[in-house]
Amino acid sequence: MRMNGTSTKLVPAAGLGAWTGLLPESAENHGWRMRLMPALLIFALWTVVGLFQAVPDMLDGFRWTETIGKFIDAWAWALLTPAILLIDRKLTSRLQNVVRIAVAHLGLSIPFSLAHTYLTGLILYPMPDIWWSPLRSTEFAIYFYLGGWGTYAAIVGVLQTFKYYNRFMGSQVELARVEKNLVESHLNALRLQLEPHFLFNTLNAISSELAANPVLAREMIEDLAALLRQSLDCQGSREITLAQELALLDHYLAIQKLRFGERIDICVEVDPATHSAMVPSMFLQPLVENAIRHGLEGRMSGGKVVVSAAQVGAALHIAVIDDGVGLPRQWTIETCAGLGIGVTRERLQTLYPEPGDHDFRVARREGGGTEVAIRIPLHRMGAEARGVES
């Protein structure tokens, strides 16, 4: 084609793509590249081995014959390495026993050492300056054979080391997965201990109001249904956000406020910045229930329960405080803790097993009542929140 005195040559699309690189690479070329990568890697590794062999001889002066001889010795092994890898893979799949594999490789070391000796000799033979070629001297043939036998043993040793390391790492991953499943099962079992206990106490409270005040009992049942619905939504989660945990607690507190009326004052003082912090699911409810049942329920004047949460450094501090009757004189957490305290303590130990990761204390207050103080690691839901935290 000619335009305004200038000729323009039409180039096929394939040729244009080859020159400009603008067209996508064909699947066939990509396949060839993937096949060449292992070969290039093997060649590069043996080149490095040849370099390490040649460097000591270079210290007293560079001689090209000695240097090229070391590289050719290594490159001969590069040519044999694919066959060694293939045979080792077949032996591993068939024998499945380290002793049998070792015996098989011991037998194979003879032909492979001979093959390396003759292959190296053939490559070196056209170079008359390299007089130590195994095809020129019987003594050097024995030297090359023994050196090749040691190299073959080293190759097999490295292969077995990598294989057993991979198996070990695979078994560690599988072990971690099994341990995680066991922890999940243990946490679910602990939670299942709490739920029947909580349901029995709540239903018992509702039944006591059913005859005297059916409207109040109906409202308590509605709050219980909402609490159970949200609890089922979180059942598969080891941890939920503090906001979700407070939403669950709100339904339980609504039941208690309907039941006790003005006798009990419940105050929730939580820093909004901690709402995205992850906490064990349904762990506040048994602590508040303990404060009400054992601290305030028996008092005609009732009392107050305060639930607080705040960030302190890299930890989340949570407290449940009441001004009730307090703990008995001989009370200890090891011997006298009820189901709610005991299960909560065990859940924290399971979720945060590292020393110093958490703290759980139950203590008497100076002015009367009980304080439950919890410290757990502060981590938030989502990568963005974790970035803010760090």
UniProtKB/TrEMBL annotation:
Classification via InterPro entries: Bact_2-comp_sensor_kinase, HATPase_C_sf, HATPase_dom, His_kinase_dom, Sig_transdc_His_kin_internal
GO terms, molecular function: phosphorelay sensor kinase activity
Transferase is among the record's keywords: yes
Keywords: Kinase, Membrane, Transferase, Transmembrane, Transmembrane helix
Cellular component aspect of the GO annotation: membrane
Protein's name in the database: Sensor histidine kinase
Residue stretches spanning the membrane: 36-55, 67-87, 99-120, 140-159
Sequence ranges assigned to domain Histidine kinase in this UniProt record: 284-380
SUPFAM superfamilies listed in its UniProt record: ATPase domain of HSP90 chaperone/DNA topoisomerase II/histidine kinase (SSF55874)
The organism's place on the tree of life at top rank: Bacteria
